[in-house]
Design a protein that fits this description.
Length: about 625
């Protein structure tokens, strides 16, 4: 306890403290009597000399707490000490149920709630904040007809002047022993905390990972040297900033979930200052309360930089991925989860399989995976083998090695994309022979260049897309089982627009704003028009929606676009064609409700009453629905 100081106002307290310290076998930094007027300056002196815990009483303790930043243990009179003074007061007064007053600072006293019953007295307490308030407290006691006062020196002097008997509020070794025990416990806890902090500082300071510590609000309170190096910022430019302002690509909703204990952890992949990073966030949890979070950033080992000539050649031939995850406009919960999964898949060398309908962001995801990986500065090759013969597929993917036969040697996509990424669209269109060679390239990191299996070492990441369920094709014998299992482990499906209606709202706003600015034709959609667009199926997903928005902006007859025009345009652009009697075609607006009504009209030969009965609606409601969805009844003609 060499870092503890005892500061007391009276010599007798000094002697008592010295005895307690000796009895406890302690060694303290300072033990001295100090006048109240000098207590702050004395406290500051011992603090500068290494003291980080002070034991004091009353007004002196309050002043030290107010004007310094070290913990203070307050010497509080025990119930035994106050009880002794009350017994002495009763002996002096020699009367039943005497009125006794006690004056002092709130931090000096124990709980005296039951003293009236225990000692058969009427106790009045007068708590003061400053010594100057003593006179006022004595006057109150006089007005309350208090017969004896207990307090400090000023209380005793003032009470004698107004004619009230008084006892000095003296303490014994009990209160000092109690304060000493508290100081020992606090010191022990602080020493443990110091050791823990020292260990943490060493761990954080010399860690090969970047480390940030956040408070409950997501504000950074610690940033180690490695994190400063990763961010390219000084400590003062990081501390006190919100995590979203420092790592703008981080998914802060996931960080908030960690801070609110909704998630046990969060991990992702980021690129910062051309460095590939794996990040992990975990909560700092004390009992059941989350007090903050630790974010660690670990560098992913880079591939060797391509030579400048090879890099120039890559750009010259257009083997470059232009897109990144920030360009994905959809913000639904489902899409955010897919994006985070794709970021994790970008870390691996293994192939990734992307399922998705026509018009979804399959290529955008593939380019983003490439640009968020260590292969960013290597080629990105995109090919589609649909409609090609087996020979053409073989040449495009694997190249040929026929230079000796008078045919110019041609490199395939896998060789050109070595150290980079090759995107294969509609992988289910590959022939079984090409599937076999692709599996060998993925599994054994070798490229078979001709039929006699001349090979070369290969280091390329394959990203494949498909609109069909490959497991079904495997069961039908249309896709190789070994290639399927090589691809399927790291697979995800991009949800279609119809399953994430909130994304339609975002995209509609983005597309209409963009085309309105491009063509200087500004439109306003009514609530009914928006609802119709939101509820449409959009089987062509983003491609279809974007094209529709361009057509709508270009052809809108007036500034305000209502549901009638939207219905007309949808029916014109995307009709359902039904074959009737091998000749006649019936065109209906493509909405689920409209399609159902059209089918029932066909079923019941145009009988509206039977259609209404089957739908459990009135004929009037049926007529309104037919008008709303643009469904005509050919049997009315």
């Amino acid at each position: 306890m060499k870092n503890i100081a005892f500061i007391v106002p009276r010599d007798e307290m000094l002697l008592q403290a010295a005895e307690v310290i000796k009895e406890e076998g302690l060694e303290v930094h300072t033990l001295k009597v100090v006048k109240t007027a000098d207590v702050v300056s004395e406290a500051r002196k011992v603090i500068a000399d290494g003291v980080d815990l002070i034991v004091a009483r009353g007004m002196q303790a309050s002043l030290i707490k107010s004007y310094t930043n070290v913990p203070v243990v307050e010497i509080c009179l025990t119930s035994q000490e106050i009880g002794r003074l009350i017994v002495r007061a009763k002996k002096i007064l020699q009367k039943a149920k005497p009125r006794i007053g006690i004056i002092g600072f709130p931090n000096m006293f124990c709980d005296m709630t039951y003293f009236n019953d225990i000692f058969d007295i009427e106790l009045h307490r007068y708590l003061i904040k400053e010594s100057d308030e003593t006179q006022e407290a004595v006057n109150k006691a006089l007005a309350d007809k208090v017969e004896l006062l207990i307090g400090g020196e000023m209380t005793v002097v003032t009470a004698n002047i107004v004619g009230i008997p008084a006892l000095f509020l003296e303490s014994t070794k009990d209160s000092i022993r109690q304060a000493t025990q508290i100081a020992k416990n606090m010191n022990y806890a602080r020493e443990i905390e110091k050791k823990h902090n020292a260990h943490m500082e060493a761990l954080v300071g010399y860690s090969f990972s970047g480390i940030l510590k956040l408070n409950q609000s997501g504000v950074i309170i610690v940033a180690n040297h490695m994190m400063q190096e990763i961010l390219g910022k000084r400590c003062e430019d990081i501390i006190g900033k919100h995590i979203g302002d420092v790592l703008d690509e981080i998914d802060f909703e996931s960080i908030e979930s960690v801070l609110s204990a909704k998630k046990e952890s969060y991990s992702s992949f980021l690129r910062i200052n051309n460095m590939a990073l794996i990040i992990m966030a975990v909560p700092i949890q004390v009992d059941d309360e989350v007090e903050g979070a630790i974010i660690s950033c670990h560098k992913v080992q880079k591939l060797e930089q391509m030579e400048s000539q090879a890099l120039r050649e890559m750009y010259l031939h257009g083997y470059v991925a232009q897109s990144n995850f920030t360009q994905i406009l959809r913000k639904s919960k489902e899409m955010k989860e897919i994006i985070e999964l794709a970021k994790l898949f970008a870390q691996t060398k293994n192939p990734v399989l992307i399922y998705g309908e026509v018009g979804t962001e399959k290529e955008l995801f593939a380019q983003s995976i490439h640009n968020n990986s260590v292969r960013k500065n290597a080629p990105f090759i995109s090919i589609n083998c649909n409609g090609m013969s087996e020979e053409m597929q073989t040449t495009v993917l694997f190249g040929n090695n026929y230079a000796d036969n008078g045919i110019e040697k041609q490199k395939g996509a896998l060789e050109i994309g070595n150290y980079g990424t090759v995107l294969i669209h509609e992988i289910e269109q590959l022939t079984m022979h090409c599937q076999y060679r692709l599996f060998k390239a993925i599994k054994y990191k070798t490229l078979i260049q001709n039929d006699i299996e001349k090979t070369m070492t290969l280091d390329v990441k394959v990203v494949a897309t498909s609109r069909r369920n490959l497991s079904v094709l495997v069961k039908k014998g249309l896709f190789r089982e070994d290639l399927y299992y090589a691809l399927n482990a790291l697979s995800f499906e991009i949800p279609p627009l119809r399953k994430t209606q909130e994304d339609i709202e975002i995209l509609l706003n983005e597309y209409t704003k963009a085309y309105a600015a491009q063509y200087e034709r500004y439109i306003v959609l009514t609530t009914g028009a928006k609802k119709m667009i939101y509820e449409y199926q959009w089987e062509g997903n983003l491609i279809q929606l974007e094209s529709f928005c361009e057509r709508m902006v270009l052809t809108a007859p007036r500034r305000t676009v209502d549901e009638n025009f939207v219905r007309y345009l949808l029916g014109q652009l995307y009709p359902i064609i039904r074959q009737v009697n091998d000749e006649e075609k019936v065109v209906v607006y493509k909405a689920p409700e409209g399609a159902i009504i059209a089918e029932l009209l066909e079923k019941h030969k145009g009988n509206r009453e039977l259609v209404a009965q089957e739908l459990n609606i009135s004929k009037t409601t049926l007529w309104r629905h037919m008008k709303k969805y643009g469904v005509s009844n050919k049997y009315d003609i």
